[in-house]
Specification:
By secondary structure, this protein is of the alpha/beta class. The chain has 4 domains: 2-153 and 616-637, no CATH class; 155-221, no CATH class; 230-291 and 409-509 and 526-610, no CATH class; 301-370 and 375-407, no CATH class. Helix content is 21%, strand content 31%. Strands 5, 9, 12, 15, 16, 24, 26, 28, 32, 34 and 35 form an 11-stranded parallel β-sheet that branches. α4 (335-343) packs across α5. The N and C termini lie far apart (117 Å).
Length: 642
């Protein structure tokens, strides 16, 4: 039994030892399989990484090929303006290889390149084109990218000229001139030793002289390709665009500043919406046509003679304690004028003294003002004919005494469309206000065209371009309803003159020499400010922007920000484009002191249909799904329907 027991003891451990050897084998097998799996994973990941790297390299090659092709397409459009079709698209490259900067072609990659006009083709909001590149390989893989281009607008320039001379004399930048926007000239740019600071890019098709006297915040470029001003032929569609909004007008003459007998006045009307007439529907314009030979009247020229001074005068009460009304100097000698003064509280002697006063005495009064021809304050002049009764004519003027037609000096043109009831309730001249807002003038395209010379003034609410086949004469301040210095791009004006843009030498923009009886002559302004404020992008095709009689003005009539000058400051906010550089003043003090500011809004939202330089610049990039890409369908979808 004891042997039997030993046998049991021996067999027991032998069985347990066999179980441990089986477990170790299983563990080894599992570890071996795990290591094999890890090795396989490593091989797989390494292969996948290699494939991924190859794919990324291929994608980079596709992308590089497409972008290189688009750059070549952009260059082609800029060097050959005839290559871009008017409609549809053109194929610029077909299955071509792209050569890199190292001179080697991208292996296995070919490119198709297409170009065509896109967006609105009218030019109202600018001119756009697209170049589309399709990079592909032999296996059918593709990469498609579109570059939208926009033609550079002349409105982007703070200053642009074709010639830097005036009557053969070279004009210099100097006296600490500060130019905040892009500057360009096709001519030599000259900087005087008094210095000038160019805060943005400056370029020329020739060279810059006096470079040591200039400060160039963004450098400069010389010997660049010329940029050509648009011709009247290329602008020939503008009158048609204006006609669709009933704003195509014919003026009586096409002469210079001295002969202008038509004017446009912008009006911002508060219709009860946002304050300060800033609503989108609150912009209007009206047009006045003076009779033949009435240019002095329309311009409000200073005559220096009481009997012929029809635009200037002073204000008096015609009822006790009532509001003052305006009377031109030429009617002061009338008996009915004396009677109105007595009705307003003057004694007979006071009324007689006022009636007999000299022009110098009248214009020395604190209420003395001058107004452009057609202004309602000049009612006593406009109604001095058989078309009006004595009661209608022999009155003082204010904002409500509007004389639309049958005036002795001219007439206002009626608006042919429907009149908004809100306007009719607020304005005596409602029937003569042409809406700028499309909601009130459904046909407007933002263009106002004049066949002939036109004067301009007023407060603009909206976005418009004026085109004149003659000259444009600034007769009074021309401002935006929303001050551009606020950075809000609410209003925008472009002025294109086939001839010149001229700041008039008249009694409104003054100053004028007043001669009181005591002989102590003095210079006085008869507008709301002594300075001139001008908002907009000015383009004079032949020849320049300048001030009328700038060299004949006084040397110390007004002054400008501490500087001695005859006419004060000329505050221009916008841009200046001209064929030849004009003058507004002299360093000896005559004329205006320039205070020009750049309006960045003109780059973002140029005036409607404003001319472009012809150079294309990048606008936006798009990646296109290559699976659904069809070049014909793409370009068809990128042009809006009629």
């Amino acid at each position: 039994m004891s042997n039997y027991g030993r046998t049991q003891n021996i067999e027991g451990p032998m069985v347990r030892g066999g179980e441990r050897r089986g477990f170790a084998l299983l563990t080894i097998i599992i570890l071996t399989l795990g290591m094999a799996a890890l090795a396989a994973s490593a091989v797989y990941l390494s292969g996948n990484a290699s494939l991924l790297s190859t794919s990324q390299d291929r994608e980079r090659e596709f992308k590089y090929g497409a972008e290189a092709a688009m750059a070549m397409g952009k260059s082609r459009l800029n060097t050959d303006p005839l290559v871009l079709p008017d409609t549809s698209f053109v194929t610029l490259m077909n299955g071509q290889q792209v050569v890199g900067a190292d001179g080697a072609a991208l292996p296995g990659v070919t490119v198709n390149l297409y170009a065509g006009p896109t967006g609105s083709t009218s030019g109202q909001f600018g001119r756009f084109a697209s170049v589309v590149a399709e990079a592909r390989d032999g296996q059918g893989a593709r990469f498609v990218r579109r570059l939208e281009l926009t033609q550079e607008s002349f409105a982007r320039y703070a200053y642009w000229s074709n010639r830097e001379t005036n009557n053969g004399q070279t004009i210099y930048f100097g006296n600490g001139d500060n130019l905040w926007g892009p500057v360009w000239s096709n001519d030599n740019i000259s900087i005087a030793s008094s210095g000038a600071w160019f805060h943005n890019e400056i370029g020329t098709a020739k060279t810059i002289s006096g470079k040591p006297y200039g400060t160039f915040s963004h450098g400069y470029s010389e010997n660049q390709p010329t940029i050509t001003l648009p011709s009247n032929t290329t602008l020939g569609k503008l009158p048609t665009y204006a006609a669709s909004g009933s704003t195509n007008f014919v003026t009586p003459n096409s002469g210079n500043a001295a002969g202008v007998i038509a004017r446009v006045e912008f009006v911002a009307v508060d219709l009860g919406g946002p304050p300060d007439s800033s609503g989108v529907d609150e912009g209007f314009l009206k047009v006045y046509i003076a009779n033949n030979l009435e240019d002095n009247w329309l311009r409000a020229d200073w005559t220096g003679n009481k009997a012929t001074t029809t635009n200037c005068g002073a204000s008096y009460r015609t009822t006790p304690g009532g509001p003052k009304q305006f009377f031109p100097a030429s009617v002061h000698s009338q008996a009915w004028f004396r009677a109105l003064l007595q009705a307003g509280g003057m004694t007979a002697q006071q009324a007689a003294d006022t009636s007999n006063a000299t022009l110098g005495t009248i214009m020395a009064k604190s209420t003395a003002r001058c107004y452009l021809g057609g202004d309602p304050h000049l009612v006593a002049i406009e109604r001095n004919n058989a078309n009006f009764t004595v009661a209608q004519a022999q009155i003082g003027g204010d904002d409500t005494t509007f004389t639309p037609v049958n005036g002795s000096k001219g007439r206002w043109l009626p608006w042919p469309g429907p009149i908004d009831p809100r306007v009719a309730a607020r304005r005596a001249d409602a029937q003569y206000l042409f809406p700028i807002y499309r909601g009130l003038n459904t046909g407007t395209k933002g263009v106002i065209s004049f066949t002939g010379t036109i004067g301009v003034s007023g407060v603009l609410r909206g976005r418009v371009t004026i085109y004149s086949t003659g000259s444009v004469i600034v007769l009074d301040d021309l401002r935006y309803a929303t001050d551009p210095s606020t950075g809000k791009c609410a209003d925008m004006l472009g002025i294109i003159a086939a001839q010149n843009i001229t700041v008039a030498d008249n009694s409104v923009l003054g100053p004028e020499l007043v001669t009181p009886p005591n002989g102590n002559n003095f210079w006085k302004n008869f507008d709301d400010t002594k300075d001139v404020y001008l908002h907009g992008i000015m383009m004079a095709l032949n020849t320049s922007f300048g001030a009328e009689n700038y060299s004949n003005a006084p040397t110390s009539g007004n002054g400008c920000e501490g500087n001695t000058s005859g006419r004060g400051c000329l505050y221009l906010t916008g841009g200046l484009i001209q064929e030849s550089r004009g003058a507004v003043g002299l360093v000896s003090g005559q004329g205006y002191v320039k205070r020009y500011s750049y309006d960045h809004c003109a780059v973002q939202t140029p005036p409607p249909y404003f001319p472009t330089t012809g150079r294309f610049v990048d606008n936006r990039y798009y990646e296109i799904d290559p699976v659904r890409f069809n070049v014909s369908q793409l370009f068809a979808s990128l042009v809006p329907g009629p």
